[in-house]
Amino acid sequence: MSAGEKAKAKAEQVVGKAVRKVAHAVGNETTAAKGAALEARGKAREIKERSKDSFRR
After folding, report:
1. C-alpha span between 38 and 53 (Å, rounded)
2. Does the pTM of the predicted model rise above 0.90?
3. 32, 24 contact by CB (below 8 A)
4. What angle do CA 39, 42, 45 make, to 5 degrees?
5. pLDDT tens-digit map of 10-55
């Protein structure tokens, strides 16, 4: 996994989690769902990059 892609994946996860938690605290469920989606996209990107690495070995 390239360092840049790994950083992007982790950043998406962190930002998504923060958005989700703040939105839940405020009571904005629409924004909370968007944060959860961003977090899931970051996790999916990380899994995709890990699978690429496993085939490169």
Report:
1. 23
2. no
3. yes
4. 150
5. 999 999 999 999 999 999 999 999 999 999 999 999 998 888 877 7
Kindly list the distances between the CA atom of residue 23 and the CA atoms of 15, 42, 44, 52, in Å, as whole numbers in the listed order.
12, 18, 22, 34
Residue pair 23/29 in contact by the 8 Å Cβ criterion:
yes
Residues near 9 by beta carbon (within 8 Å), at least 6 away in sequence: 42, 43, 45, 46, 49
Contact between residue 47 and residue 10 where contact means Cβ atoms under 8 Å apart = no
Q: How far apart are CA 53 and CA 36, in angstroms?
A: 26
Give the contacts of 14 (CB within 8 A, at least 6 positions apart): 42
**Which amino acid, one-letter code, is at 9?**
A
